[in-house]
Write a structure and sequence with these properties.
Layout lengths: L28 H10 L3 H12 L7 H16 L4 E25 L3 E2 L2 E3 L10 E7 L19 E3 L19 H8 L6 H35 L3 E5 L21 H10 L9 E4 L1 H12 L5 E23 L4 E11 L9 H20 L6 E8 L7 H12 L4 E7 L7 E5 L4 H14 L6 E3 L8 H6 L4 E6 L4 H4 L12 H20 L6
Parallel strand pairs: 4-5, 5-6, 6-7, 9-10, 9-11, 11-14, 12-13
Antiparallel strand pairs: 1-2, 1-8, 3-7, 4-8, 8-10, 12-14
């Protein structure tokens, strides 16, 4: 859930206090590195997971099939304990079957479209006039009364386009990494101010998105056939969230995705996003009183409500087996593409780390568990339920949780999540790895992925600092495919993730 990733880069005069910790257990490290970098299986596993099963929308048959294949693969690698864990959340079982959309008048234009998740189908091909629903307040809805029945409605305003002058792909430079290294934890007063500002921002978001829900409700009442929205990216790249509900949202996630998959929320109208350039073009034509006719078809498969689940696998520890070291990434993805970068790479890195440790026959003192989360996109549902079950209401003790969900860029360091003790330990681990490109420890908190669930529960959860590459351009879009993955970065990340799991599983102290 990276729609609002808050990475605060603050330059400060003081660095994190350095404290010497217990020696790092590097036994087995050389073998882990050799296996990760010289006998890698990550890219092959990633290709099969994403290209064979495709998008893994929560509660969908595709999610289930991918989970069964992962379970089978882990058992083939002799991982002793693999199971599905209920997340106490039902959702709509939905699959995208086929779709298309084209302008057919005044001339032919094949549209780059992507259906929104959990959209109803169109029940056959629609040929209808396009209408631009231009309204900035509810009082303006009345001028469209009686004019939307059977129409294809463009619900959002055009998005002004600017030339993309920044590089398409980027890596962190030394200045940025130094700024992260010198980040200082905000004071209590600063945090309170930030919380108040966040509440104000969320209120504005809810007001803004509620207006769109009111627009959808009006279109539904008037009998519109289909709603189109702008894809919100450039160069034919679309970002497609969940189908907008006619029910007013309580927060941003209700609007973006949660309500769309909720079986208790009434079904809305069929909806697609159109590439921003084409969307703007259609509105320009309509603004010139040029009639635009569109032909479209959307076929989906619905199978009622289904139970959600995480995929859990672990290698039991020895004398400290009740203490848990966790690696995690979310298995669910959006439907516009194959969910490779968000977050197939995180899933596969966890799988590969467990495979490597098991294949080498090395035995951790603590239990090493991977969690492939369900319903992360709906609000970190899977990780929150796991925490409640195992650590709040269960008897297990969490030693550390490491999350991978910020793309496939090379690990450049780790966010210590305001845990000064952990920051000091991580510096020793980084020193033991002796990787010039992986050296940054930042005390900042990062949100909007599953490490946030652990932080909020008072548990030691951490996320890696990753080179951005083109992540912010492609996550949740129709361009999230295998070609976006640099194999060397992925292999290096697998090595570091495996090493951190091994260090944590055998350390003599703890991270709190």
């Amino acid at each position: 859930m990276k729609n609002i990733i808050l990475l605060i880069f603050v330059l400060a005069a003081l660095s994190v206090t350095r404290a010497q910790t217990a020696p790092v257990d590097t036994s087995g490290l050389g073998r882990i590195k050799y296996e990760a970098l010289n006998n890698p299986k990550a890219i092959k596993t990633l290709s099969y997971l994403c290209n064979v099963f495709g998008p893994r929308l929560m509660w969908s048959p595709e999610y289930n099939k991918a989970a069964v294949w992962i379970e089978s693969s882990l058992k083939e690698w002799n991982i002793p304990d693999v199971y599905f864990e209920d997340i106490n959340r039902k959702g709509k079982s939905w699959s995208l079957k086929k779709y298309h959309a084209s302008v057919i008048e005044p001339y032919s234009m094949n549209l780059i479209v992507n259906p929104k998740c959990w959209s109803p189908g169109t029940q056959g091909t629609i040929k209808s006039e396009a209408v631009y629903f231009k309204a900035s307040k509810t009082e303006e809805f009345e001028k469209y009364r009686g004019k939307l029945k059977g129409k294809i409605v463009l619900i959002s305003d055009p998005i002004p386009q600017r030339m993309a002058m920044r590089p398409m792909v980027s890596r962190f430079n030394d200045d940025t990494l130094n700024a992260l290294s010198n980040y200082t934890i905000p004071t209590k007063e600063e945090k309170l101010l930030a919380e108040e500002q966040e509440k104000k921002n969320n209120k504005l978001y809810v007001e803004y998105f509620s207006f769109f829900s009111k627009k959808v409700a009006f279109c539904k009442e008037e009998g519109a056939a289909l709603i189109l929205d702008a894809g919100a990216r450039q160069y034919g790249t679309n970002i497609a969230w969940g189908n907008i509900s006619a029910v007013m949202p309580n927060d941003i996630f209700d609007y973006l995705i949660k309500y769309a998959g909720d079986p208790d929320i009434p079904e809305s109208l069929p909806q697609m996003v159109v590439s921003t350039e084409q969307y703007n073009t259609i509105i320009d034509m309509l603004s010139e009183n040029i009639q635009v006719m569109i032909e479209t078809n959307l076929e989906v498969e619905k199978n009622g409500a289904a139970d959600g689940f995480n995929v859990i696998a672990e290698i039991p520890g020895t004398d400290l087996k009740d203490e848990i070291v966790m690696l995690g990434g979310h298995l669910d993805s959006y439907t516009s593409a194959n969910g490779v970068v968000d977050n197939g790479t995180g899933v596969v890195a966890c799988i590969e780390a467990l495979r490597i440790i098991k294949s080498l026959g090395i035995q951790p003192r603590r239990t090493i568990r991977i969690a492939l989360w369900g319903a992360e996109e709906e609000g970190l549902v899977g990780s929150k339920y796991h925490i409640d079950k195992h650590f709040k209401n269960g008897n297990e003790k969490l030693c550390a949780y490491f999350n991978m969900d910020f793309g496939v860029g090379r690990f450049r360091g780790i966010y210590a999540e305001e845990n000064v003790r952990a920051a000091s330990v991580f510096k020793d681990w980084i020193s033991a790895l002796n990787d010039e490109k992986f050296k940054t420890v930042c005390l900042s908190i990062v949100k909007n992925s599953d490490q946030e669930s652990f932080y909020d529960a008072g548990l030691p959860g951490f996320a890696f600092i990753q080179d951005p590459l083109d992540y912010m351009r492609i996550y949740h879009t129709n361009m999230d495919y295998l070609d976006r993955v640099p194999q060397d970065d992925l292999n290096q990340n697998v090595y570091i993730l495996s090493a951190f799991a091994w260090f944590a599983a055998n350390m003599k102290t703890n991270l709190q």
